[in-house]
What we know:
453 residues; alpha/beta; Rossmann fold; Alpha-Beta Plaits; six-stranded parallel sheet; 15 helices; 25% strand
Amino acid sequence: MRIVIEGAGEVGSHLAKMLSQEANEITVIDNDSAKLEKLKMTADVVTITGNPSSISILREAGVPNADLFISVNPGSAQDINIVSALIAKNLGAKKVTARVNDEEYLTADNKLLFKQMGIELMFFPEKIAADEISSMLRHGGSTDSIDFAHGRLQMAVFKVEDDSPILEMKLAEFTAALSTDELQFRVVAIAHEGVTTMPEANYKFRFHDLVYIMTTREGMEGVMTFLGKSNVNINKAMILGGGRIGEMVARQLSKDIEDIKIIEIDKNKCLRLSERLNLDNVTIVNGDSRNTDFLAEENISDYDAFLALTGHDELNVLSCVVAKKFGVEKTIAEVENIEYIRLAEEMGVDAVINKKLITAGKIFKFTLSDKARSVHYMGGTSAEVLEYTAAPDSKITKGALKDINFPRKAVIGGVIRGSNAFIPVGDSVIEAYDRVEVFALPEEAKEVDRFFR
């Protein structure tokens, strides 16, 4: 696939590295030659230095023959992204996407307007991250979660701690102890020290395993009970950092919970937030979260959730560790350095959010067939959660799952058929138009895609 990426910032560089590993031809445009040189050291890409909205530069990058054009300059260059995407479409790029930094562009009417102009996807990484955090707080007992079909199927991640009932238990024993006609679930993957596997029946759960479980809506409570987990009811949340993500999360949460407190070290930013978030249940406090006495004075131990959303990874991780010491049930840290994600999890942070990874899922969908409904990335693993609609006469419908030679590094976790959801077994047969949830390692994504065309 020929892909042109305009913008070598954090998100653009991550996309270039990820997509180049999928045997795609990647060209990256940026007017900062230093960024491009840095990118060339870590990814197999062609780089072009120049104005990303220049027609001659876009032609030089091969945009007229591109299968996908991704316009992803940092948020301050929203106009450049939109103009570049529109030019790319008119030059002949088959699909184009553009990064924006204004929620107004994401209203239904405006998205339709831009789609009519030729931009297939408008994405706002900070908004995607805020939505993800709000979703995480609705599933307080797991470290990460995804709902499908309004929750009829659910995937959640659970960490094996030293007091976990499944520590040293074999997967087959766990399945036998918990499975009933009413409680349908599947362990789709295990991640340990950064390595993800699709486990065999004799796999023995280890300390700090991340266990990825797909279940029906009715089954989630039983799984959590067996694992000794309980949903944390979030009524009070403390947010560290009053940037874009912090502000959007506060606005979203204010509709559902009774008390939100934002801690921000920049006094001027506090004043601006007070004007924009003029809500009865949102309090803005100017202070330094590195001071534990200050956090104690702000009654951190009274809060159910602590969200560290500053632009500093180390501060976010350490603040969550401190919040845990104060007894906060649920901690979430924004971590942009992917190498820090595992460290954060090992230090006891309940969930990690990375806007590069979750944005990548939105973009990666465009490299697959039109049968792919969505792509998600979950914390602790490089694997992808792919949602497909099975096409009539596609390979996935040609027999029982045990007989169709489905990729070994991919697992079908759940199926939605009409208004019903179920966890398939080896004898199950996928039917045309079923919605199918697949957990797959990156190297298998294109092969999985072929089964659904």
